[in-house]
Structures are given as C-alpha cells and as structure tokens.
Amino acid sequence: MCRHTAWLGTPRTLASLLHDPPHGLLRQAWEPRRMLHGRINADGFGAGWYAPEIRTEPARYRRAVPIWTDASFASLAGVISSGCVLAAVRNATVGMPVEETATAPYTDGRHLLSHNGRVDLTVPLGLLRGSRGAPVPDSRCDSALLAAVVWQRLAAGAHLADAVAEVVVAAGGRDGAARLNLLVTDGSQIVATTWGETLSYRVSGGENTGVGIGADMEVGTEIGAGVEVASEPSDDGDGWIDLDDHQLLVADTRNVIVSNLT
Fold it and tell me: Which domains does the chain possess?
C-alpha cells in the first residue's frame, strides 16, 4: 500500500536516507521490492524531520504528487540534515482521497506518524467516537483517522509504544482484513508495528564504508551511527533484520526492542 522509513541517530541529510541508497524510498516509489499489496507508490509523498535547537515540533513537507516529479524537494533534501527523520511514499487505498492532507507523515505536537496499510473507515471512527479530546483528523482517509486515534491515546496519557500497540490491536480486532503497519516517532524514539505488511531495521555504527553500505552506493557515503526502520531494505548491504508479522518495535539510540503484539 505504501512504503515508509525512519532514521534516528547522528544527523544525516534527507537525500542520504531517501534518494541516495540504491533501493531507497525514491526508488521504492516506482519499484518496491517487497510490497505485498500494490505495485507503485505514486499518490504522494512526505517527509518530517526535527531541528531541536530551533523548536520541539518537527518540520514537514508533503505533496500529492510522485516523489520523483518534485525537483525542488530533491534539491532541498541534499542540504537538510536531521538526527530524526520519518518519510513515506503513498499508494492510496481505493476510494481514499489523493490530496496533501491525506499524505503521511501526520503530525501532532512533537509526533510524526505514517501508516502502511488499510483499515475500514468505521473502525477508527468507532474508536474515536465518544473519546474526550479526540483531535480533528487531517483528512477523512483511513490513515489520517488512525493517526487521530493514536493522538487521542497520547493525549489521554499513554506512552507512545503503548498507544501505538493499543490502537493496532484494537483496530485489527475489529477488522480482520486490516493492514496496520504504523511508524511513529517523537524525535527521541521510533515505534513501529507489523500487521499485514513488511518491515526491517538496521543498526549502523557510523563507518564511512562499513555497516550496510550497498555496492551501488557512492564510496565514502556517511551512514552515521543510529537505527533505520523501513518497509524494506534500502540497499543489499549487511545488517538488515526482518520482523515477523504482528510485532512491535521500539528503538532509541541505545536499544532496539522487538516484542509480539498478540
């Protein structure tokens, strides 16, 4: 349905994460290798990143066009660096609007969220109904509604990982055909789920030509020390670990913890 990726670690440019890898998000927009549902991700893209020395809330760039058509973003991506990035390319669920507000990442305060999958609209609407402090969704698409449910749980005091896990399990219990791969960050941790789609992660140590450098990547490219979580590996280098279905990943700059959702 979509492809998404997140980075947490030493600052790197958006281009080094999204454009430069041989199978990065740019290429996954037109040639995903592991996407189980759909063939192309041309209904929009977005990226969010943090500049904590300026403000706590992330910056965000979204367009309802294919990522490869936006030359301005490609230019910006080479000069914007951040220690925490979340980005996505979109294959819209049939019947959902193709518009900027329906494109991930969604934001609330310091949080960024992407959803790879689909869910019946009645499910997030039902979870929001009657909830105190339920935010107004960015869009009426399924992903934006799911994001609003997560925001509501966070506003009620839940920790990020608990809020994400609770929403995924509740939505999956109400819609047996739902696909609920969420990717969320608050700038200091990454939380991700597998529920009907693929997800991998890699911890890198910061070597110029070390962990995870693909054969087609320019020699000397700096990956940086950190963790990358993605719908599929961005290169054929070593170190990528695939998650099983129905799992929860919680990662920060010290640990990556994977547990079962059900």
Answer: 3-260 (3.60.20.10)
